[in-house]
Amino acid sequence: xxxxxLVPRSTVEAASTTALRHxxxxxxxxxxxxxxxxxAVDAWLTGWDEDFTAALAARGWLGMTVPFEYGGHGRSFxxxxxxxxxxxxxxxPVAAHWIADRQIVPSLLKYGTEAQKTHFLPRIxxxxxxxxxxxxxxxxxxxxxxxxxxAERVDGGWTLTGTKVWTSGAHLAHAFIAxxxxxxxxxxxxxxxxxxxxxxxxxxxVDIRPIVxxxxxxxxxxxxxxxxxxxxxxxxxxxxxxxxxxxxxxxFERSGPERFLSTFVLLAACxxxxxxxxxxxxxxxxxxxxxxxxxxxxxxxxxxxxERGEPADVPAAVVKVLGTTTEGDxxxxxxxxxxxxxxxxxxxxxxxxxxxxxxxxxxxxxNEVLRGVIARGLGIR
Length: 381
Ligand SMILES: Cc1cc2nc3c(=O)[nH]c(=O)nc-3n(C[C@H](O)[C@H](O)[C@H](O)COP(=O)(O)OP(=O)(O)OC[C@H]3O[C@@H](n4cnc5c(N)ncnc54)[C@H](O)[C@@H]3O)c2cc1C
Fold this sequence. Notes:
The chain is an alpha+beta fold and about 375 residues long. The protein has helices at about 15-35, 45, 50-60, 75-90, 95-110, 115-125, 240-250, 250-255, 265-270, 275-280, 285-305, 315-335, 345-360, 365-375, and strands at about 130-135, 150-155, 155-165, 175-180, 195-200, 205-210, 220-230, 235.
């Protein structure tokens, strides 16, 4: 029996897309020179900068794949891929719009009502509407079918009650899409009875409490929904179809360049001619560069598959397992390479990368769970 492909057929970048890359690079160099941002690790999760987001929107680099009729730019996934890859490689602060641009756009286009598309998409494109992800709960992470937040039918809508946790950016975002129970668990069909709702994070019945990380940073939150009212117009997709909707969009969440470029600024710094020879000529550095180059090919191949409308959940899981392991290894390599004489900025950045590293292989699905997805895709589980 032939094994299924773990990487979709590769995509050759069009000359126009390469030109776009150079445009983004020039913009980023200008922004760094002007002091608009300092390149940072994991800036797609922690670098919330609404001015920078506005600058990207002004150049047409947000909501690139949104069709013209919703205020978007009608560009391809591959063009979006090139732009996001450049932003990530530069360590640019893209967290404010990241979730909306990465997964809310494709989800809205697939499952949103006309009114939801008309309301949210133009605002996302303009960099004026930010989203968070409302999936995890205190006792429910990998096994999302066990979520206990429930929605009850009331006049004109639903009331949501329960607690979401690890909600990145909820204290700054406008809304999240919450996965909740709309029917009791049926042990024979645990994935049934789940639904999604677009929740206004600034509305009544929503209490957002910070979870401060060990290094003092605040990007996580606990979001307590205490009878939060969601009107019928903000039901997302079909009631009872939440599981299918969530899982069908996972490829967008797992396969992108943010799964291997979170620490790229450190890799680049180690490869600089100005880095100590013991670092810049290390065989381990060469291996890390080769791994990132391979991941670029794999991740762009998945972007090509998504563009063609092909299912890509297994290849996306492969990118995520290999990519998040690699970006963590880059953090460790740079941390060990940065001795006492390394510049202060380098040591601070590699320290920040080590702080963030445990999350790389957890967020968006843990490596253990994803290996299970890959094994199932290969028919060996
Ligand atoms: C930086 C970061 C940002 C995040 N942002 C968000 C966010 O914005 N919104 C949101 O909803 N969530 C967010 N999360 C939560 C994240 O999605 C969960 O941490 C993740 O899904 C794992 O769930 P858990 O932490 O409950 O661990 P658990 O599911 O309890 O897993 C614990 C351990 O058991 C292992 N395990 C579990 N099930 C299996 C299995 N079937 N086979 C083998 N091993 C298994 C896991 O691999 C893990 O090692 C974020 C997490 C991090 C680290």
